[in-house]
Design goal:
- With 313 residues, the protein is an alpha/beta fold.
- It is built from twelve helices and nine strands.
- Strands 1, 2, 3, 4, 5, 6, 7, 8 and 9 form a nine-stranded parallel sheet that branches.
- Helix 2 packs parallel to helix 3 and helix 3 runs parallel beside helix 4.
- The structure holds 5'-deoxyadenosine and iron/sulfur cluster.
């Protein structure tokens, strides 16, 4: 199904994780504010633009600005960075900055941002509330709706194998993702982080994550589905297995070596100290060996979802 839509092209998105500061306290995540073991960093505008230039030179057609969540005060500085990123070349800019005011989303869209990723993590209301203190599934869903209305290509997703997630919940999550007007759908397995309340929980399983991705591809043939880096945390060629299960997007981190290990959402994330260009060249070689064609296209989903007026979240 993936080949029918995308051929063997794999869209490459370079992820700039520019700050690990976060005011939320999600139980599963190493960036949670309650994790006092983590040294916090925020890259300045120059460092972000430099990372983006490296990403472009390495063949990325999209850069993704990602960070923990913070209060909306610096929305204007993000807007300035977005417009400078767009001026670097013919690229898409994706934001993955979590929950913000509608005004900030609108400002960033006006500044030129093309896409926004906001993962639901799970649609199960009680599990969502339990693992994401102070947050509700419904509010998150409304934010997705706002983003879509503002004209962003929207992405969402879930963590498979979250502690407390039953098979029924996972199946339901897949159906809920499939019925939303999403351009991008990410599924990554849960990886227990030692400095979180879920440290002693069992990791999500590889077969479960792969099966969920394959089902998603069949439910939503034209969606952009990434082979998430969490797959690589479970096994060395995890992302390649993700591609074999139907993913068509790869999202290497292009965060500078000096800070990248600090973006430790889960163990194994950004653990390599190899320079970014070399890491990407090696990844591209592995993709080609596996028969894929790493693409520098911007790579929107080929059959865009219905316009906001026509659809119903
Ligand atoms: N295991 C897997 N994925 C995680 N994320 C956060 N913590 C974990 C974890 N322990 C993912 C979530 C979130 C993104 C920042 O990383 O999906 O949206
Ligand atoms: Fe913060 Fe996102 Fe991690 Fe939650 S999942 S603690 S919002 S970075």
């Amino acid at each position: 199904m993936r080949d029918n839509i995308f051929g063997l092209k794999i869209f490459q998105r370079g992820v700039i994780e520019f700050s690990n500061r976060c005011h939320k306290n999600c139980h599963y995540c190493g960036l949670r504010c309650g994790n006092v073991c983590l040294q916090r960093f925020t890259l300045d505008e120059n460092a972000i633009l430099q990372a983006a230039r490296i990403a472009l030179a390495a063949g990325m057609g999209t850069v993704v600005l990602q960070s923990g969540e913070w209060p909306d005060a610096n929305a204007h500085s993000i807007a300035r960075i977005i417009s400078k990123l767009k001026a670097l070349g013919d690229i898409s800019v994706t934001l993955s900055l979590g929950d913000h005011e509608g005004d900030s989303y609108a400002l960033w869209r006006d500044a030129g941002a093309d896409r926004y990723l906001l993962k639901m993590e799970t649609f199960d209301e009680s599990l969502h509330a339990k693992l994401r203190p102070g947050q509700s599934m419904r509010e998150r869903l409304q934010r997705l709706e706002t983003l879509h209305r503002l004209g962003f290509e929207t992405g969402s997703g879930i963590i498979s194998g979250l502690p407390g997630m039953s098979d029924t919940m996972l199946a339901n999550d897949l159906l809920r993702l499939a019925e939303l007007p999403l351009d991008m759908i990410a599924i990554g397995p849960f990886i227990a982080h030692p400095d979180t309340p879920l440290s002693s929980c069992t990791n999500g399983s590889m077969p479960e994550a792969l099966r969920a991705m394959a089902i998603m591809r069949l439910l939503r043939p034209t969606a952009n589905i990434p082979a998430t880096s969490a797959l690589d945390a479970l096994t060395t060629d995890g992302r390649l297995q993700g591609l074999a299960a139907g993913a068509n997007v790869i999202m290497p981190s292009v965060t500078p070596e000096s800070v990248r290990t600090g973006y430790s959402i889960y163990p194994g994330k950004n653990s390599s100290q190899t320079p970014v260009p070399e890491t990407i060249t090696r990844l591209q070689e592995r993709l080609r060996l596996a028969g894929y064609d790493p693409s520098s296209m911007r790579g929107p989903s080929p059959h865009p979802n219905p316009s906001p007026e026509k659809r119903n979240v």
